[in-house]
């Protein structure tokens, strides 16, 4: 029952907050309070909201949509607007109910129609329904509605244009216009809510306001000054929506936000005239048109460049920005197919990309590998026989799963110093990993192939051994990635997922000529411990806390997450076979799951104390709220706070042990803000200890049997 | 070009041909220095005879051997066979190169601990582990390789009294198609004794069976034997997984890889006949990779190579004491190192070279040690140039077993020096002295010299 109440209250608050593209509870609550500054309007709005929520809940629409207020903010707006314009009487309520029902139906329908293409409905359902009501009320039909004189409403002190206070006053009145008010007090309260919700959003509102006023003083379009209603409901709204909601906040998005101001003005002017013919107010139509047009316009680009549309909406400009920056930094392996090295042990790149010998022109992005001893020699004894070479006859393994597309095995191995330019690739295998992604290994030993065309190969499966066939004066392994399946296709720049260069772990990099590299050896116990399959259940026990039940799920986009049943928190993760890392966390930060999220933010399944995994947390997790607020304002342009993560995995006796820490780099230099330890018992997590911001959490991990 | 100096013509025995029906060509090269250090200077400074070890060569050997395995198999671990050479300096070179320790007695076990090897990186082999050794090893979480049922029963009874679950492996012996087929270490594979031991271990629930070990022989000249051994070990490991649900974490293929010394009785020299580490690595890893393990459950491969990693890094420098003619007319040379010092001369025809320039005359001779014992023969027949008393000799490839199996007999044991990677000489063991020998001795009161001489 309490869950249901929580759900409904969230839906109510969110319906208010979403008017400012937010899901912030404080902003939502403040808007709710402010809406009641005009009792009738506030009440009518709340009735509209309640009605629509009841409707969509009873009829069983998408619960997540309901909770976020998707379907109910238009009826809410309609109610507020209706209550502002008309005197309450029995017929008022009848038409309110009917209007809100239509607005709800429109919201649901349009959300489906536009949502399919990932476009927002904005306040279009409200505008259309309100027009319907206004037109009906002004028609020959007896609607029984009495219009208020809205000009007398909320006329608190408004300073003259010359006064210094006029401009801030106008700004706050403009903000209150979103709730059809004209009150400095209301605007002030809303401002506080917006600042709490987002510093970026607020700064854009200010920028839009100033731009609009400047524009007007330059052009003199409105000799009386721009109307507060249009400033608030259209210009500032459109500007902020494009500047920080639909786009990732950046210098460019700010510029775009400023550009939308004159665009919106033109829409206001033009539409006012056109709709005036039908006696209809433009309401927030200019905002809707500008926002929609800009969004559509930008979405049709083939390349995003530096003006990036928000890939995943978190309903907070800051969070969108930090998550975007963080993701761009971290999640390279989502964009790349994971190639592993096609050999074992230490090999040296004898010729890299754009090599001097043969890696030229269209075939420049290839790598040649040999084995060298500590003296830098590639052979023992005299080096006159192919068998003297360390790499000769060494096994070659599949660099990824795929299907063998080409396999040539009949070409003789050359004598040392001789080349076969006629069959220059020698014995070769081409594997198709994905459409348009092939890897090729060449100069293999004659008749050493263990696969044939059409075979499905798994990563790490032996394919052949290194030989000296084709254009190869001494035994070496040639590796390249290509977009087409032919032997002789041109090459493609493509990184290896993970490899060790000495003791340093390289991820998604292309080794350079002269680098000695080796594949990272996976510790199966750690890998097994982090193998969170859907249905994995564990209980976390910590002293002085209620036990926390965790379960792993996979969502409809095939993304896995750990869900804390007890705390309702969610942590999305990726396990790519070499490492485990969290991508995002939602929910209660007092949960044990959050502590684990911090501690195991990124873990490589490699037990070598020398290897340090480095990563960055999204900045919204940075401790020090007020410093971060300051940072938020500048963040679209420059980020001077960094929250980094380091972990290393060692063996404690025979059990793996992971140590990790969080380091905050900001004004006062670097400071360690977290120290964590994850203990294993064989291939299972046993305990984790997280000392974060001076608060120590020690939890026991009890895995439940899946079968 | 100036006028050449006149040289008196002389006749030199032609020995350019590599082989003839009398065997290999004589050692016609002299070795006057070891890694830039003149033999004479080393002997003058540290006394004769003297063992010399080359750190550079040891590291080169272990890296090359590791490279052979690691470029073929994802998880390889070497464990230094202590019995081959347990000088602390030597052990620590191997530990620095990442090797674990493989020990076969409580004495060696404690030596490994003393060298700072973590308990869980010590492999305890050998047929005669004492109870206190077992307790110590269990406490340190070392890997216990069980050799016989009595040891297994001892372990089980120890487990009654402790709460720990020791990590164990069983030693397996098997027919690998060679003669002699070793069956004295561990449990037999063919007659299912090994499987029976495994089931006993698993069903006891008190021991954690983590590995399988085999030691199929020593100085193995057949690559195929390792291939067969690896296959049989894999079969056993897979059976443990499928039938007993006890995956095996590692396979220990033991040591036994030969150095390039020439065994007595061998017709061809070792350098030409002995397979390389690479050949053994290929045989072993191919067998495991093809055995049917999934990628994730490929066991760790442990190798306990000893001899092959150190033999050619050791030299014995010595001096000629006298020459004589034997009754049958053969020439004999007496040197200052005997079988007590060069124990491996029982098995090998060691390569021995003069340490100084020599005349063109060479002769087949017997090389005797200094002992007053008939068995003290270093080489029964070796073609060496004429040597004068005080001349020096270098015995090659003596790094393995000599410095552990040597005897204090008649003479005391010589010193050992190590030439490091920067060519600096370090004494790693002093020559033994009379005081050292007598230190543990206790003489009853009535047998002390002052009583005796009264």
Short synopsis of the structure:
The complex is a heterodimer of chains A (707) and B (454). By secondary structure, chain A is an alpha+beta fold.
- CATH fold-level name of the largest domain in chain B: TIM Barrel
Number of strands of chain B: 22
The order of strands across the largest sheet of chain A is: 19-18-17-16-15-14-25-24-23-22-21-20
Average of pLDDT of chain A: 89
- How far apart lie the N and C ends of chain B? 81 Å
- The CATH superfamily of the largest domain in chain B bears the name Alanine racemase
Q: Which structural category do the helix and sheet elements of chain A fall into?
A: alpha+beta
Backbone CA Rg of chain B: 25 Å
How many structural domains are formed by the residues of chain A?
A: 4
What general form of chain B does the structure show?
globular
Main beta sheet strand tally, sense and closure of chain A: 12 strands, antiparallel
Mean pLDDT across every amino acid position of chain B: 92
Range of helix content of chain B: 25-40%
The helicity of chain A comes to 25-40%
Overall shape of chain A: it is elongated
The tally of helices of chain B reads 14
The helix tally of chain A amounts to: 18
| End-to-end CA span of chain A | 32 Å
Characterize the quaternary organization of these chains.
Answer: heterodimer
Write down how many β-strands of chain A occur, each being a DSSP E stretch of 2 or more residues: 25
